[in-house]
């Protein structure tokens, strides 16, 4: 095991913490640890009385920012979009721009629920391929380093998606936007990052993503170099 996600008391409730045990730990190791904990169901849930997520949809009407890998996996799993990023986004995402800020999120239906929510049984229709932000959310108390790791991974992945969206815009000469206006955006504001060129979460090392301080907090016990 390269990432340990474990229960710990946070503000008097049963929450969770994350510890990295190896410099080879990947984002997928982190997701595997979280998924194990979700399935065990031993945490205090802040939004509902149940201990497991199955059958609960209380976090499926919120903003779901997407990463470059989420979109690649959705494209593979749903068989949509061919080689065009814009085609995939037009089928399942919204692009909102308030220059220089760009947000690419999963589409919601008229009731505000996620496009991929089965409203009858309240289960996710793409559970195995659900976006990173869904896989990393547990409505339980978390330690500061666990919260920082989550936001670092999600934000870096969304930055790479925005960079790819801008690159396709430069090639095609148009930037499709659902809300706001795509003026004054420059590719130089979105540099390549550890998500660049990666097609799955097992290819990204946590060490490459984390700022030095966060990395040393996460790998405290393991003494990772
Ligand atoms: S994380 Fe979301 S789905 Fe799971 S119990 Fe909490 S609100 Fe429900
Ligand atoms: S992708 Fe699945 S888990 Fe994520 S918000 Fe949509 S229905 Fe919920």
Provide key terms for this protein.
alpha+beta, three-stranded mixed sheet, two-stranded antiparallel ribbon, 7 strands, binds iron/sulfur cluster
What this model shows, in words?
With 225 residues, the chain is of the alpha+beta class. It has one domain (3-218). 34% of the residues lie in helices and 16% in strands. It is built from 7 helices and 7 strands; from the N terminus they run ββαααββββααβαα. It has helices at 27-40, 68-78, 85-92, 132-135, 144-172, 206-209, 212-218, and strands at 3-10, 13-20, 93-98, 101-106, 117-118, 123-124, 179-181. The chain has a 3-stranded mixed β-sheet with strand order 4-3-7. Strands 1-2 form a two-stranded antiparallel ribbon. Strands 5-6 form a two-stranded antiparallel ribbon. β3 and β4 form a beta hairpin. It is globular, with a radius of gyration of 18 Å. The protein starts with a strand and ends in a 7-residue tail after the last helix. Bound molecules: iron/sulfur cluster (SF4) (2 copies).
Helices, strands, pairings?
Blueprint: E1 3-10, E2 13-20, H1 27-40, H2 68-78, H3 85-92, E3 93-98, E4 101-106, E5 117-118, E6 123-124, H4 132-135, H5 144-172, E7 179-181, H6 206-209, H7 212-218
Parallel strand pairs: 3-7
Antiparallel strand pairs: 1-2, 3-4, 5-6
One iron/sulfur cluster (SF4) binds next to loops.
Question: In a few lines, what is going on in this structure?
Answer:
With 225 residues, this protein is α+β, with helices and mostly antiparallel strands.
């Amino acid at each position: 095991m390269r990432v340990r996600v474990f229960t710990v008391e946070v503000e008097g409730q049963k929450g969770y913490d994350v510890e990295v045990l190896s410099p080879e730990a990947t984002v997928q190791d982190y997701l595997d640890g979280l998924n194990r904990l979700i399935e065990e169901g031993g945490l205090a849930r802040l939004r509902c009385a149940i201990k497991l997520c199955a059958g609960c949809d209380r976090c499926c009407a919120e903003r779901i920012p997407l990463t470059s890998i989420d979109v690649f996996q959705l494209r593979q799993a749903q068989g949509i979009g061919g080689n065009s990023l814009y085609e995939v986004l037009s089928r399942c995402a919204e692009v909102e721009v308030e220059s220089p800020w760009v947000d690419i999120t999963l589409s919601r239906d008229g009731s505000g629920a996620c496009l991929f929510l089965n409203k009858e049984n309240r289960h996710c229709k793409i559970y195995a391929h659900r976006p990173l932000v869904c896989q990393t959310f547990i409505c339980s108390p978390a330690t500061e380093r666990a919260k920082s790791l989550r936001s670092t991974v999600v934000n870096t992945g969304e930055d790479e998606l925005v960079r790819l969206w801008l690159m396709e815009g430069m090639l095609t000469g148009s930037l499709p936007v659902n809300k706001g206006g795509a003026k004054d955006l420059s590719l130089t504001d979105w540099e390549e990052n550890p998500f660049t060129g990666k097609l799955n979460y097992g290819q990204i090392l946590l060490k490459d993503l984390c700022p030095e301080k966060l990395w040393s907090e996460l790998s405290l016990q393991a003494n990772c170099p």
